[in-house]
Amino acid sequence: MHLPTLVLTTALNFTANGVFLIAFFKVRNHDFLKWMAYGCFSFALGCLLLFLRFSYGVNVYTLPLSNIFLALMPICLTHSILIFLDKSINRKIHKLYLIIALSVLVFSLIFLISIMHHKWIPGIYTSALNAILYLIPGLIVLREPVRRNTIIRIMLWLDLMLFIVLIARTLILLNFCLSPSTDDTISNFHMMGLLLFLTIPCVNAQTLCFPVLDFMETYRELLVANKKLEQLATVDELTGLLNRRFLNSRLEQEIAYHQQMGFPLSIMLIDIDHFKKINDQFGHLAGDYVLQKVAKLTNKFLRVNDLAFRYGGEEFMVLLPRSEISQALDMAEGLRVSISQLYFNHPDIPSDFQITASFGISELTKDVRCLDDLLKQADLALYQAKSQGRNQVCMG
Q1: Using CA atoms, how far apart are residues 84 and 186, in angstroms rounded to an integer?
Q2: Where in the chain is the domain with CATH 1.20.1070?
Q3: Mind telling me which residue stretches traverse the membrane in this protein (predicted)?
């Protein structure tokens, strides 16, 4: 492609990218999108000033200033990555980088103005400078665990490719400077075109990686939100146990599976004795604390496949897959003793206060084949435990 046309096309392309990123920023309001848009506008302005060099020759605008605007792109890129990785990057390091980068640009502008009419040094200096500036964001993402993200890995490889291309141009120009020949000017012209042809797609791809990153971050946040909603739908907020709604559907599934496979299945109903007196004597906050302590203790007794539910009020249920009633009896007895030994560290509850619980257990059998029958048997056993003086385990 004709070099001036390529440069002008690049300026228009990055202007369009900048407009797109600004529009995306207005919707998403993430600062890394805004700074990447600034980088695109800066790169477009640098290309436009470079384009003017073909008509007006080398001057302060077409060489020093154009290169400064081009160098702002990798700085904005690094700044955007640092914002995206805000939780894992030290803010002092972030500010230090910006101060150093802007200081380097000011020095570069002054230096380029002083040597802008030299044949090779401006190209050698700007190529080396941009190589370092594009390497920095690559080194940042290389050190972060987030590099396992596919888009971040792509950005890393793009930065490394830019670094290699720019270092190669630096070495070639340095060779021209040390060993001049009559074809140097033509070679430099063609090399500039090749450099743009290689670097523009890499830089362009990096600018478009950020909306993709934003989309992926939004998708991750959506998954987290859905998980929280699912948890709210299945977990009791006070105790952290599974709730009654989830119990009904899960218990039916377990009964069907165990009947099909011929495995034993038991359930355990737990009722805290005289719980109403706890609320009346110490208050509802103290009662909530007691429920939480019992729920936490119950969880400690669970095996890998066991499930604990808040059945209602002060009642809990434990689902024991592949467990015969004798196994349920052993677990219930151990849990009953532990509940009676609980210590309550609560300002409204006396240090020597103790509670007890009654247990009713039932097993899936030939006579007890459905959910209603299983619950009915456990409920009858619980009633028996309470009528016989509480603080005991009965089987249905």
Answers
A1: 43
A2: 3-231
A3: 6-25, 37-56, 68-85, 97-117, 123-142, 154-174, 194-213
Q: Which residues are catalytic?
A: 314
In CATH, the architecture of 244-395 is 2-Layer Sandwich (3.30)
Residue 303 to residue 299: CA distance in whole angstroms: 9
Whole-angstrom Cα distance, residue 324 to residue 267?
10
pTM of the entire structure? 0.61
Alpha-carbon distance of 365 to 47, in angstroms, equals 81
Residue type, 115: I
For the chain, give every residue range classified as CATH 3.30.70.270.
Answer: 244-395
Please name the fold of domain 3-231.
Rhopdopsin 7-helix transmembrane proteins (1.20.1070)
- Contact predicate 138/160, CB 8 Å: yes
Whats the size of the chain, residue-wise? 396
Contact in structure between 77 and 39 (CB atoms under 8 Å): yes
Coil, helix or strand at residue 346? coil
pLDDT in 10s for each residue of the chain, 396 residues: 577 888 899 999 999 999 999 999 998 888 889 999 999 999 999 999 999 998 998 999 999 999 999 999 999 999 888 888 765 456 777 788 889 999 999 999 999 999 998 888 998 999 999 999 999 988 888 876 655 578 888 888 899 999 998 998 888 888 878 876 645 555 665 666 677 677 888 888 888 888 888 888 788 788 888 877 776 778 888 999 999 888 888 888 899 888 888 899 999 999 999 999 999 999 999 999 999 999 999 999 999 889 999 998 899 999 999 999 999 999 999 999 999 999 999 999 998 899 999 999 999 988 887 888 999 999 999 999 999 999 999 998
According to DSSP, the residues that pair with 359 across neighbouring strands are: 270, 393
| Identity at 199, one-letter amino acid code | T
- Please write down the HEC assignment for all residues of 212-253: HHHHHHHHHHHHHHHHHHHHHHHECCCCCCECHHHHHHHHHH
Backbone dihedral angles phi then psi of residue 131, each to the nearest 5 degrees: -60, -45
